[in-house]
């Protein structure tokens, strides 16, 4: 419902290779770390966004999306559903092309706002699962 195959393919192959991963820290036991690793293996630049602004997997981290001094193509969201809508709004404000809510992150109102702002969006899916399927 919130991630048709055409949109998933477009985000993963056509919209650009710079992904801000909100919630990514140096904690290797967290899902965001593993997903970031997969994205990097598939040629994506992964930019960590976390209050600690840690360098993760060779990329400098930033405390917020607004702090990133270059264009971001996709914002991948690893925060709980209650906070995710605000992140989607920030993604639109910085000019991102797409927002991706991870598995279990669901906010229908944020989906509607993000789409109305002209961004592609996928919700309750994982790019690390989807990208290998593209072949």
Terminal Cα separation, in Å? 23 Å
Largest beta-sheet characterization: 5 strands, parallel
Choose one word for the global shape: globular
Q: Low-confidence parts lasting 5 or more residues at pLDDT below 50? A: none
Helix and strand composition category: alpha/beta
Arithmetic mean of pLDDT: 95
Percentage of residues in DSSP E strands? 15-25%
Strand arrangement, largest sheet? 2-1-3-4-5
State the order of secondary-structure elements, H for helix, E for strand: HEHEEHEHEH
- Count the E strands: 5
Count of runs of 4 or more consecutive helical residues: 5
Radius of gyration: 13 Å
Helical percent range?
Answer: 25-40%
Q: How would you describe the overall organization of this protein?
A:
The chain is an alpha/beta fold and 135 residues long. It is 34% helix and 16% strand. The chain has helices spanning 5-13, 31-41, 81-93, 108-116, 127-130, and strands at residues 18-22, 45-49, 74-77, 98-101, 120-122. Strands 2-1-3-4-5 form a 5-stranded parallel β-sheet, with helices on both faces. Helix 2 (31-41) links the parallel strand 1 (18-22) and strand 2 (45-49). It starts with a helix and ends in a 5-residue tail after the last helix. The model has no long low-confidence stretch (mean pLDDT 95).
């Amino acid at each position: 419902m919130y991630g048709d195959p055409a949109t998933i393919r477009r985000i993963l192959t056509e919209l650009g290779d710079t992904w801000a991963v909100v919630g990514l820290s140096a904690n290797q036991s967290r899902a965001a770390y593993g997903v970031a690793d997969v994205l990097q293996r598939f040629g994506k630049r992964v930019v960590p966004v976390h209050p600690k602004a840690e360098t993760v997997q060779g990329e400098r981290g930033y405390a917020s999306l607004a702090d990133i001094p270059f264009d971001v193509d996709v914002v991948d969201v690893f925060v709980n559903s209650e906070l995710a809508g605000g992140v989607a709004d920030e993604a639109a404000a910085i000019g991102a092309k797409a927002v991706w809510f991870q598995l279990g992150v669901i906010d229908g109102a944020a989906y509607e706002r993000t789409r109305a702002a002209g961004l592609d969006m996928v919700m309750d899916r994982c790019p690390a699962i989807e990208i290998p399927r593209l072949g």
